[in-house]
Structure formats: structure tokens, C-alpha cells
């Protein structure tokens, strides 16, 4: 049965695009019901519109609390019968309201080999540290910052002194790893927890 998902994103949305393309090419048995963004001007909005996928944009500071905007998001997710929440460059911590509504049904991708370099600009952190190998992690979301049980990881050799080349390798790997991990997860081919 096709899995109904929502993509949460705050930026360019290249992972969103890779997931939608994998769906269209029959590599991922899923359907994106809605894209949720906290950045109404983000490029992901344009990409979603190009595919004819509904977008829910919100501005966090227009709500009294995280619980308030997350409750509104939950209403939208239920309207679209969303089963899994897929974070793809969504730069906000998920709060208890959404975590309990989608318990063990929220997944994130992060551009490092966690637990190394959590948080913002993981690629910059890795380069700054001088590591020779970095990578990509797909993991379940809990209340922490890029914590939660790891589903898959893959490594990338750093291109020394060349941030954009390193970034390009990481993004290409993300697109591949995210779609293949989601397919295994939805087909119950990977165990949920360690
Ligand atoms: C991706 O590299 C993703 O791993 C990262 O944001 C980028 C979004 O790119 N996420 C995090 O850093 C989460 N902590 P995209 O908008 O092109 O998909």
C-alpha cells in the first residue's frame, strides 16, 4: 500500500525534489500529500508548486507557542491523511505536540556522520574540524537536536580546501540515501529501533 507522507523543509528543497522524482520513477512507493514550510519564501515552495503538491506555510512568530503552530500542522497532516513526517532541511526542533501525534513516525536527514557535528552548518563544522571523512545520516526524530535512533549512514571523502565540491558530493549522496532508506522503512525491511 502506498505510504502517504509530508515533507517538512525550510530551504532549497533538493531532497524534496529527489523524493518526488523517486516516487515518479517508481523507486519509492509513497505519495507526498503536503509540503510544510516555516519559510514562505523558500525555494521548496516553488518546487512543490511545479509538481502541483499542496504547501502549508506558516510563520512561527505569528503563533503564541510551538504547541499552537504544531497543532495547526497536525490538523493539516490529518486532512491529507499523512502517515509519516519526513524532515528534509527543516531547521526547527520538533516539539512534544507533533512528536506525540506522530510517535516513531518522524524521520530526518542530516549532512554528517552523527553523532558528529549536529545542528546548523554540519558541513562547515566538519571542514572547520579538518576531518577527512564525513557523510550523511538518516535517523528517527526525538526531542533532541539531530539525536534519535539511526536508520542509515553513508560516508563521503572530504575534498580538501573545496567546500562546494564536498557539499555537492554530500547532497548527491543524501538524495540517494534518503529515498532508498525510506523505501526500506516503508516496506518494513529495516528494524525500527536498535
Ligand atoms: C540538507 O543537506 C539536509 O541534510 C540539511 O539541510 C539541507 C537541506 O537541503 N539538514 C540539516 O542540516 C538538519 N539538521 P535541501 O533543502 O536542498 O533539501
Automatic annotation (TrEMBL):
Keywords, comma-separated and alphabetical: Purine biosynthesis, Transferase
Protein name (Swiss-Prot/TrEMBL): Phosphoribosylglycinamide formyltransferase
UniProt similarity note: Belongs to the GART family.
The organism's place on the tree of life at top rank: Bacteria
Top-rank EC class of the record's enzyme: transferase
Domain Formyl transferase N-terminal positions: 4-181
Associated pathway: Purine metabolism; IMP biosynthesis via de novo pathway; N(2)-formyl-N(1)-(5-phospho-D-ribosyl)glycinamide from N(1)-(5-phospho-D-ribosyl)glycinamide (10-formyl THF route): step 1/1
InterPro entries reported in the protein's UniProt record: Formyl_transf_N, Formyl_transf_N_sf, GART, GART_AS
GO cellular component: cytosol
Gene3D superfamilies (alphabetical): Formyl transferase, N-terminal domain (3.40.50.170)
